[in-house]
Design brief:
It contains no helices and eleven strands. By secondary structure, the protein is an all-beta fold. The mean pLDDT is 96.
Length: 117
C-alpha cells in the first residue's frame, strides 16, 4: 500500500516550463516502476514517463526531448521536469507506482497543468 501526493501544476504559457513533484509514503525502490501519466478531459490516462526500477526509462513520443523524469530514492520522490510546454500538454498529471507481480497500481490525486497558447 502506498500514498502519493503530487504538486507543481498550474497555468503556464506555451514555451514555458513546470516541475511536477510526487512524494510517496513508501519506499519507491520497493516498486517495480514509478512514473507519470496524463489524462485529458474525457480521455484515457496515458503514460508520459515510466522508470523501471533498476532498468530502463520510457517516454511517450509526444514528450520526448521536452520532459525528463527523475527519482530520489532517499527522499521517495519522483519528479517530472516539463520544458517547452505546448497547449496539447494540458491535462491532469498523475504520479503512480507499480507492482508487476501481482499487478497493482497506486495513484496520486493528480495535479492540473494548463498550457495557454
Amino acid at each position: 500500500q502506498a500514498q502519493l501526493v503530487e504538486s507543481g501544476g498550474g497555468l503556464v504559457q506555451a514555451g514555458g516550463s513546470l516541475t511536477l513533484s510526487c512524494v510517496v509514503s513508501g519506499s519507491i525502490s520497493s516498486f517495480n516502476a514509478v512514473g507519470w501519466s496524463r489524462q485529458t478531459p474525457n480521455g484515457p490516462r496515458d503514460p508520459v514517463a515510466t522508470m523501471v526500477t533498476g532498468g530502463s526509462t520510457f517516454y511517450a513520443d509526444f514528450v520526448k526531448g521536452r520532459f525528463t523524469v527523475s527519482r530520489d530514492n532517499a527522499k521517495n520522490t519522483v519528479t517530472l521536469q516539463m520544458n517547452n510546454l505546448k497547449p496539447e500538454d494540458t491535462g491532469v498529471y498523475y504520479c503512480n507506482v507499480q507492482l508487476f507481480f501481482p499487478k497493482v497500481d497506486y495513484w496520486g490525486q493528480g495535479t492540473q497543468v494548463t498550457v495557454s497558447s
